[in-house]
Amino acid sequence: MTLDVGVLGYRFMGQAHANALARLPMFFPDAPEAKRHTLVGRDEDALAEAADQLGFAHTETDWEMALDEVDVFYNLGPNHVHPEPSIAALERDIPVFCEKPLAPTREDAERMAEAAAGSDAPAGIAFNYRYVPAIQYARNLIAAGNLGEIRHVRASYFQDWLADPDAPWEWRLDEDLAGSGALGDLGAHSLDLARFLVGDRAGEIERLSGQLRTFVEERPVSGDGSEGETREVTVDDAYTAQAAFANGATGVFEASRYATGHDNANTIEVNGSAGSLRFDLERLNELEYHAADERGFRTIMVTEAEDPYIDHWWPPGHVIGWEHTFVHENYEFLSSVAADEPYDPNFADGLAVQELMDAIERSDDAGEWVDLS
């Protein structure tokens, strides 16, 4: 089966997914054939250059026109562009793969999830860290009961690309375009990983308290003729949250784009009555694991052929990287499309995370815990 893929967005995420699509036939020969058909953007010159670089046969500046030409639609644009194109595609029963967070607001996410529920096409959300082999390994350990009763979950996501107060303003700093700041950009991943890893054993998060902080209120505007101009930052630069899971486990979550010395430190730790594990994305081939009959933690290198996805890549000990998560993600999504089967994580998962983020924002506004049960 050959699938003509249309992609809205050609920068960071567009490049990551185009690379994944190019790698699929080399390393996953059982994947459906996916042609990079149409690249969608607004700037015709930049779009043509990107299409040539990323291997797309066609370009289109109107996403509605692009829907007429493709079998699968990837919505990798800024957050405020997620709802309308995704809903329109799903109403035509065109499979959709959307970047996270699902939408800039809970209300938009609800509309998108409703459209997905009413469509015959799969709708996936881009929580690519589920496809790190070490995370899959960790989930298998937890599901098998190796950690016993889940008692604590701690997740943080630290970056430092905004630590310089003179770093220029961009769309991710505008509430109307992004919805939220570090909470949606980074925290969405942490909240999803917690649900993915412990949801079956600890249940959903039932109560939350949170706080948001903005450290730099205005940033300089870059570009010709903008010297000395600034724009207001209307999203959070950092967030923290406490959570209570259905089984009584506690959760602590935080993220910042101001954590100096951290390039992409996405970490999660789970403690149970019979063991613990912890993961750091900056060492993504490793999982630290403690069993009740052991002293301290041992490091498991998740690079053996029997480990999740590793048999498609290199010999044991030959590590993989961040970009491979997108190959795994595209393999699973496109295989679901070709088989006309449901895909996880889907828009319902995206909405569940959006509801948690919304609760954190409401808790910050009210200065009190928010009940989700």
Supply database-style keywords.
globular; 10 helices; 34% helix; 373 residues; Rossmann fold; 25% strand; single chain; alpha/beta
The residue-averaged pLDDT reads 97
The CATH architecture of the largest domain is 2-Layer Sandwich
Distance between the termini: 43 Å
Poorly predicted tracts of residues: none
What is the fold named in CATH at topology level of the largest domain? Answer: Dihydrodipicolinate Reductase, domain 2
Shape verdict: globular
CATH class of the largest domain: Alpha Beta
What does this entry look like structurally?
The chain is of the alpha/beta class and 373 residues long. 34% of the residues lie in helices and 25% in strands. The protein has 2 domains: 2-127, NAD(P)-binding Rossmann-like Domain (Rossmann fold, 3-Layer(aba) Sandwich), CATH 3.40.50; 129-321 and 345-366, Dihydrodipicolinate Reductase, domain 2, CATH 3.30.360. It has 10 helices and 17 strands. It has a 9-stranded mixed β-sheet with strand order 16-15-14-13-7-12-11-8-17. β14 and β15 form a beta hairpin. The N and C termini lie far apart (43 Å).
List the helices and strands and how they pair.
Layout: E1 2-8, H1 12-27, E2 33-40, H2 44-54, E3 58-60, H3 63-67, E4 72-75, H4 83-91, E5 96-98, H5 106-117, E6 123-125, H6 133-143, E7 150-158, H7 175-178, H8 182-202, E8 205-213, E9 218-220, E10 230-232, E11 238-245, E12 250-256, E13 265-272, E14 275-280, E15 286-291, E16 298-301, H9 322-339, H10 347-366, E17 370-371
Parallel strand pairs: 1-2, 1-4, 2-3, 4-5, 5-6, 7-12
Antiparallel strand pairs: 7-13, 8-11, 8-17, 9-10, 11-12, 13-14, 14-15, 15-16
Helix pairs in contact: 1-9, 4-5, 5-10, 6-8, 8-10
